Amino acid sequence: MKKIMNCPVAAFIATFTLSAIVLAEEEPKEALSPNQIVEEASVEEWVAIPTEDLLVMRLAPDAEGNPREVIIQLMPAPFSQGWVHNIKLLAREGWYDGISVNRVQDNYVVQWGDPNYDNPESDGEKKTLPDGLKVMGEDEYTNDEPLKNLLTTTLTIDQEWWHKDSYGKSSGHFRGWQLGYSDTQWWPVHCYGMVGVGRNLSPDTGSGAELYTVIGHAPRHLDRNIALVGRVIEGIEYLSSLPRGKGELGFYAEDEFDKRTPILSIDVAADLLESETAPAGLTYDYEYLSTESETFAKYAEARANRRDPFFILPAGGADICNIPVPVRSAPNG
Amino acid sequence: MKKIMNCPVAAFIATFTLSAIVLAEEEPKEALSPNQIVEEASVEEWVAIPTEDLLVMRLAPDAEGNPREVIIQLMPAPFSQGWVHNIKLLAREGWYDGISVNRVQDNYVVQWGDPNYDNPESDGEKKTLPDGLKVMGEDEYTNDEPLKNLLTTTLTIDQEWWHKDSYGKSSGHFRGWQLGYSDTQWWPVHCYGMVGVGRNLSPDTGSGAELYTVIGHAPRHLDRNIALVGRVIEGIEYLSSLPRGKGELGFYAEDEFDKRTPILSIDVAADLLESETAPAGLTYDYEYLSTESETFAKYAEARANRRDPFFILPAGGADICNIPVPVRSAPNG
């Protein structure tokens, strides 16, 4: 990919300022792609992700013996913290080790958990959940809809890049995440790669023992109906390319249980780094582009208005899930 | 799934009419899911898809020897007819037979064509294109942007279900397709499973020899920048679950050419049915739910406002790609 080192921005902003006139006397510059804009971000615009917020999920190796590691970034406060507490507890108790991917529904979700939980076709014994799990909304069970108050958060945000979207509400980016909002209420949205908490019918709110990730067009109708707890930041392809289940809702049917992918372990990255058996040089250094940075604003604008050479007509807008937050391995990581 | 045979609609429409009062005296009904609403559609609301508009793409069998057949519905007039002409010609000339899937980019597209075309890592010979292909926009090459006039269509449509979307334009359903519009101009949009024509930089408009389908969140920034020619109506999972390419843009890199999936054949369904070697009982009878039908309006409303038992809060809207057009095998097909 071409890199234009000087005036990377001026070339694609329609303006009649002095810099535009100067540019006109130089060679014509190609407008940068969103990825090229991100490459130009300064070191200070990247925000380190705490390893305490990262889950490392190891799937069984693929048919050729290649390892498959999926990295999940858990949401920081104030979102979904009760479920995040449970998930870290389950990871630290080793509860997830040995569960499997039991559901792969095309253009929808991949879901993993105890294959003997809530699966009428399995006759094995359920794994016992550890002590100390929070029951989210427990105090509100009487009103039959405990989730309603748990899935949104009151925040005061002053952001420029908030747009009315097709879901009757608005959406935008905040502290590294894609959010929806209405009045003073905010919530994470179901974009590709987001991770949520499986649940049964309300008033069940889900414990965190059953998790899923989005592998298709954003199922935004799930927003504010299920708890989102994070997103896959590496290795989503190991999940999205799994064979689809032929049972109802994409669960693997009884004659294809062998397609369930075993999950060897899910750990908090910070624990792996502190482990005595950690290999030398092990790191989990990831960072996201600050959604409050100047470069992010340019990137988001360019996602909505592609002017790089392939494009002949900028769209004039983009939905929130078509503006993913750039995440990378830290350059020295 | 539960099926409520009486009054399937009244239960989810907020109304104070007599029927609602009558319902109140009966057992409470659960609101229907969008799929349940579609199941209640009358026979007359389904529209048969001409087999002349269907492509049958046979991939090489999977690792276990299972056949993989992908059915593509080509767009009818007035959209993209020049490319559709080319694609049928290429299919009928047998030109596609023996090509392969060369690109699988996660959350984006699967692309198939001649592996030796436009792939710097391949040193094989390009397949020769047949005579009779149209060069779309040929007469307008002088203006450097021949696609601009070819990718939109002037139509007069009177539809209720058209909404402003995040792309600065409006969108809705028309004659079985998802469309975007602005003023009197209309165009197909890049939803999951849509099939488009690969091209090089403008003024190239693509011949139809290189095709792709969307396997992730709708890349709507491609709308009006590339020709869309149809959609996958069956077997998308054979494409969406293929291993992702490790090369640039998801192309299979030189050391993984063995991951390219061979395409045994692409044929027009009507030709297969008329073939002397057609197996007895072969059919390609598909139909879509009329987007102008009463049931479709209810279905679309329910996609935007889920009230079936799992949901606690209807979204209040949905983007066009989250309201796919129901397609099925004809019951007697």
UniProtKB/TrEMBL annotation, chains A, B:
Q: Does the keyword Isomerase apply?
A: yes
* The enzyme's E.C. designation: 5.2.1.8
The UniProt entry, under InterPro entries, shows:
Cyclophilin-like_dom_sf, Cyclophilin-type_PPIase_dom, E_coli_cyclophilin_A-like
**Record's Gene3D superfamilies?**
Cyclophilin-like
User: Keywords, A to Z?
Assistant: Isomerase, Rotamase, Signal
Q: Name one Pfam family in it.
A: Pro_isomerase
Domain of life of the native organism: Bacteria
- The signal peptide here is 1-24
- For whether the record's keyword set contains Signal, the answer is yes
Mention one GO molecular function: peptidyl-prolyl cis-trans isomerase activity
Which SUPFAM superfamilies does the entry mention?
A: Cyclophilin-like
EC category name:
isomerase
User: What are the residue boundaries of the PPIase cyclophilin-type domain, all occurrences included?
Assistant: 84-269
Coiled-coil stretches noted in the UniProt entry, renumbered to this chain: none
Which protein are we looking at? peptidylprolyl isomerase
